[in-house]
Structure formats: structure tokens, C-alpha cells
Predict the structure.
Amino acid sequence: MNTNMEKPYVVGIDIGGTNTVFGIVDARGTVLASSSIKTGAYTEVEDYVNEVCKHLLPLLEANGGVDKIKGIGIGAPNGNYYTGTIEFAPNLPWRGVIPLAALFEQRLGIPTALTNDANAAAIGEMTYGAARGMKDFIMITLGTGVGSGIVINGQLVYGHDGFAGELGHVIIRRDGRLCGCGRHGCLETYCSATGVARTAREFLTASTEPSLLRSIPSESITSKDVYDAAVKGDQLAVNIFNFTGTILGEALADAIAFSSPEAIILFGGLAKSGEYIFKPIQESIDKNVLNIYKGKTKLLMSELKDADAAVLGASALGWEIK
Amino acid sequence: MNTNMEKPYVVGIDIGGTNTVFGIVDARGTVLASSSIKTGAYTEVEDYVNEVCKHLLPLLEANGGVDKIKGIGIGAPNGNYYTGTIEFAPNLPWRGVIPLAALFEQRLGIPTALTNDANAAAIGEMTYGAARGMKDFIMITLGTGVGSGIVINGQLVYGHDGFAGELGHVIIRRDGRLCGCGRHGCLETYCSATGVARTAREFLTASTEPSLLRSIPSESITSKDVYDAAVKGDQLAVNIFNFTGTILGEALADAIAFSSPEAIILFGGLAKSGEYIFKPIQESIDKNVLNIYKGKTKLLMSELKDADAAVLGASALGWEIK
């Protein structure tokens, strides 16, 4: 982290399909001020940038002005670090290739970098969280999908085209569940929050075992419902987590054979299911990993605070700008 | 590559289970002199080091002496770059952890680095071969086993413990073929030369289809026999390559989702089967890779010359020593 007295803060902007959250962050990871707007309300990207700036500028003024900001980091779906563009993001209102980093840089006169949300989370974890001081780790985000940010030799892995690190789309079951990407058996069809809900529906159909989940209309079951049932001792719910954790552990054992990381850090709603999900993941890693890696890679929970995690992750990229 | 006029050469030592080959190499990748000894003939590692030096020193004298050597690079099974040690290598005569880099360094007074053979091949390819100028690529060695050397951001990926990059041991068929590592379904049980021979035996048993391979005793069929039969138009042999290439392509599609490399470079005996193996691999990558990576990663053949490849690969590490 390259801080100095003149420019002691960074700005983080996290762009989600629903909300855009942004804030000013200091070197210790304290969010000094933050706000948000609805992403989907702006069909023209220029209007969107104007609206973010309209809300951001007063926050900047209250914290010493734009001159105090070392850089802006943006986390966005389909974000390309090399070009600062968002490319064909299906859940955002703007089509094609959007030069978002350049638009903010022009508008505010602050150096701006952009990457995808999972990469931003990894940089956030390395700067302020559980991966401080680590040179080799993998961040796994368990949300609607499964994302990943891979750090090797202290550097984020972007690949030759800026799109490396899509571990949610390794094939973990050949000819398995149909994925939104059009292929079958991707990790995220099993281990995302959506995947857990899908497993719940499958398990409920496949047996007549009693379960608290049977009182919920099948199509509206969420991973949170499964967690709540598991906490109450529901065996079917526990089985769903075991199934999910086993598959995730298989994929992580393969990922360890690739980069032999010091730690794998889990982030996102599903990671908060605690031991229900951590225990089967750890058991599955231990069972499936190649002998030379056994017991070496730590499985950790993200240390970024929920409410601030998205802004912190994006902001951390602001420190990296040369 | 950090060359200078005073120290214009490096030494490469490639340690195999049968032979140890070593030579002096210049900055263009020309092997100026080389020799070899039998690895297995020396049960004490000190005797082994003495014997290598006994053969190497006259070569050095004939090329300007030890003062002309920038560094020694060693490629060895189970080699750990961080510690310069060989650790529990099942096919070498020395047990436990062997500080081989230190032994050569003390004996010859030349800075020495060590890594495993696939990593050495990757550095060799980056220094003298098909990966010159590339920052992101994956080297796949198809020999008795399947090895890999991964380069990201221009750096070899060693992982936190020095043992990263074991793509031969990702699980490509859950509960598949038993592997020498004790697990089931590892890539190398299908896509190594040994794996191809195993497939040949399976295919010959599973059908009564006529094949040139039926004239060879089942247990002695090699991947070379399969290649020779394929060249003669034997359909069963062609099917064996298609099966092998399909599985390798599936694994490579997953590897692309990890590091999005500019190229994947194939090395080793099996890679020399040319289109018989390249075509099904390429088709399988195209079929299995995530959309955003489609058509981006080149599939290349190693450009290191056979006879010199092992020494060149190991020697390239000699340039990297700081």
C-alpha cells in the first residue's frame, strides 16, 4: 500500500446489478463516508456517472476535497482491469463495452482502476482483512454465483486478457446441472446460494424425509432458509450443506494443485453459514487434496465487515494505482 | 535474462530417475558441451555430486572455467525452488530431504537454483522457446506422468510452499482410474504416455474391433505403438488419441478459467503425436471452455529441441538467479 500524507484516502465504488455503493476509505480500512444509488435507474452510463458524482462530491468536500484522494477503485461485474472497461455485463443496464474507469477519471480528475467484484474482494482482503501479509491466496465469493480472486506472488491474477479467475465456472460434474453460462456442471450451479436452493428442491423431491423446509413453497426456498432449518437441527438441511461443502472442497482441492495457496478465504452470504458449510468443505479438501498439499492450506472466513465489504474491496484497488 | 560479458554461460543439470544430463549453455540456448551419468548408480548423494562434478569440471575448463558461469539451474523430480531441496522423490536413490542446490553450490562455488522438471521446462520455453515474450502461459509435459509449469505475470508459480502446479493431479474423472498418488481419476492416469497405453488396453478389451494393436502383447503396448498404428490408419488407435485429447482438453478448459493464459504449450513424447493428439485437444478446449475465453488461448508445441530440452530447461533457471 502506497499511502502518503497529502493523499491519505481512496474511493471505492462497488457496482451491483441492484445498487451501487461508494465511499471514502482511509489506510486502516475505515469507511469515512458512504452513500448509494440504484444502478438500474440510469439507462445512459453518462447519467449514471453524473449521479454517482453528484452524491460523491459532497462527501469528498466534507473530507478535504478531491486532492486528498490517491485513487478510485471500482468493482464491477465483467470488469476488465487492463482496459478499465465493463464488457457485456448481462445484469447491468449498459450494453457492449463501457469505458467506466475513463469516464470517472475524466469527470473527477482522479486516477481510477476497475476490476471485477471478486478480484476487488481479494485485494480488499489483502489490504484490510484476513489475507494481510499473504502473497498466495484464493478468495472465493459465494453469492448468487461463485466468484474468485486469485493472488499469486502478491499480485492479482488477471491473465493475458484481464478475465482470469473464474473458478465458479470450472466443471465439477461432467454433464451436471445446466449453468447460466450455457454449459453443464459448473461449480456455481452447486455451490452458490442459488445452487444450494436448487439442491434443496432436488433433495425434497428425491425423498419423503420430513423437513422444516417442506413448509416453504419449493420455488421460494433460499439458502438462508436452509441455514435456519439446519440451526434447528433439520437433518435434510444439514445434508444439503454437506453435499454443497463436499463439492466445493473437491473444486478447492484441484485449485490447490494449481497455485498451492497459503489460504483460501470464503466470502459472501453462504460463507456465513459457519460450521455447517466450513466443516464439510474442510473434510472434502482433506479427503481430495494431493498428499504433498495435505494440511497446508488454511480455510478462512473473510474478515471484511459485511456492510463495508463491497466498498472496502473496491477502494483497496485505489491504493494499487501507480 | 540477465547476461553479461564476464559470465556469459549457465549450467543446466536435469535429474531423471535413470539419467542425469548436464551441459553448458549460452544466452541464445546453444548447448556448448554436455555429458551424462546414471542417476541410480550412486546411493550416497555426495558420491553423486562428486561424479557430476568430475564430468562437468573438464567441460567448464574447456569453455573458460567456472568464472564464466552465471548460475547453475537444476531440474529434478519433487524439487522445491524455495529451499533448493529434493523432497521425498520416489524415483531417486536418496531418501528424505536432500539439499542438492547447496551441495553443488559448495562444491563449485557457483550460485545454484533448483526446481521440478516441468517448471524447468516452462522457464526453458520462456527463455529459448515458444513462450519467448509471453507473460502468461502454461507448460504441460506429457511423459510417464503429466507435469505442468505455470507462468503468471512473467513469473513461475511456486505457491506458498514451492510445490504449486501439479495439473497432472487435478481430478478429471471423479472415482476414475487409480493413480500412483493413491487417489482416483487424476489427469495423468488418462493423458500421460502410460495413460494412453492403459486406454489402449481398455479399448482392446472392450470391443472386438480389428486393430494393428492386437498383434502386440497387451501389457507391452506403448503410446508410441498407438501412434504408429494411427499413422497407418488404424481407427482404434485414432479413437484412443481422440479419447485422450478430449479429456486433456476438458482439463485445459478448466485451467484457462484459472489463469487465462496466452498459450498452453505441450511438451514430451506424446506431444509429438502431432495432429492425432492436437486436434482432439483443440476441439475439446473449444467445446468446454467458458465463452469469454473462446478462441483466445493458443495451443502450441514446445520449440525446445528434443536432445537438448532437458538441459536447456534446467539451464534457463541459471539466468534467473539474482
User: Anything to note?
Assistant: Residues 48 and 293 of chain A are 47 Å apart (CA to CA). Chain A has nine helices and 13 strands. Chain A has a mean pLDDT of 95.
